[in-house]
Every structure is written in structure tokens, then in C-alpha cells.
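During the reporting period the student researcher (J.K.) took over the structure-prediction task from the postdoctoral fellow and processed the backlog of single-chain submissions. One of the processed entries is reproduced below for the supervisory committee.
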Amino acid sequence: MQGAMVILNDIDPELANKAAIKINRTNKDACVALPGDSSIIEVIKSLVNEAVKKFGRLDIVIANAGITLFGDFLSYTPESFYKVMQVNLGGSFFLAQAAANQMKLQAEGGSILFTSSVTGHQAHKNLAAYSMSKAALEMLAKNLVIELSGFKINVNAIAPGATLTERTLQDPDYIKTWSGITPMGRPANTKDIADTALFLVSEKATHITGQTLIVDGGWTSISPPPD
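J.K. obtained the following C-alpha cells:
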């Protein structure tokens, strides 16, 4: 936790509460679970309001919620398209807006971090909608330099590549496949991503803004597709 007090969101109440309990075992009362759909404006506002209510202020926001709905471009449905955009773009945009307004009131600056993806840099089959949403987040981080630098708020994005998570490990070939096509010889683990995020929202990175940091073991440099 590195001293942070956290409002943790997940659309699944059980997962959110389990994560908060786990964190609080070693960081007493440092994490509060606030489940809900992060693409809904009322939920977004409640996240910011709860942070101020519980901890007195808001200094850091990490917009990490996102969904992947695979599908061939020629048959991709409007329902899938707009759902991806609502969560990945709308949720991130309006969370950043609500957070920035609170940080402006505090008049002491802050940090906002978006979660992009290597698919925002390299084409990936069946991910046209998802990849455009991730590329858009990187442009949003750049554009907000104009809007928010005057309030000492820095805005960046992190673009993970293949990463070992509970979801990706459901594929028995995931480690073998991505180890074989990643120059560093392995996919990322969650600590690789978390450490990068921690740096970008820390006091060590306050003069970095409008940037995207790719964490992919070099994959985007050569970009071999998985089988």
C-alpha cells in the first residue's frame, strides 16, 4: 500500500470485499470496498465522495476498470461496441473529471493514471473496439495536460502487455505462448504492473505528465502475434 488509504471498486461486491479484507490484514483500515458499476456516473461520484468522507481528501486516482469483448469487426454488434466504450472510455473519463474537480478544490495537486494496453499500439485480431478504446485513453492523458497542469495535476497512462492474472491463467498455454514471443522471456506479473503504476502516481513522477509507459517485456518492439 506504500502508505496510501484506498477506496477499492469492483462491479462484483464479493470480490471487492474479499480484496479489501485481504489488504486490511496487513494494512489495518487502509482499504474500503465500494462495489458498483464504474461506468455509471452516480457510482463514480460516490467513489470520490467516499474518499473525501473517509480520508479527508483525494490525491491519487487510478482508472483501472475495463472490459474486453472479443469479436470479428465485420459482425461486431452495437451492443458490444457501446458497452466497451461506456466502461473503458466513459468510466475513465468521468472518474478523472470528478477526481480532478476535487483535486482542484484542494489546491494541492494530484495524480491521475489511466490503464491502457499494448493493443492501443499494435493491431490484435478481434479487438478493434477494445484497442481503439485503449488508444483513446492515451490521447486523453495527453490532452488533459492542457486542462489540468495549471492545477498541478499530472495525468499519465500505463499500457500493460501480456500479464499473468486469474483470467489469463485460465488458458493453460498462456505462459508458454507469451514467454515464447516476449523478448524478455516471460509475460508480466501483477507486481510488474503495480510497481510501474506506483511510480507514476508517486512524488518521484510529479514532473511526468501526458505520457504512456508500456510494460510488456519488449513485445511491442517486435510484435509477434500469439498462435
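The committee noted the following: The beta strands are 6-8, 31-33, 60-63, 110-115, 153-160, 212-215.
J.K. will present the remaining backlog at the next meeting.
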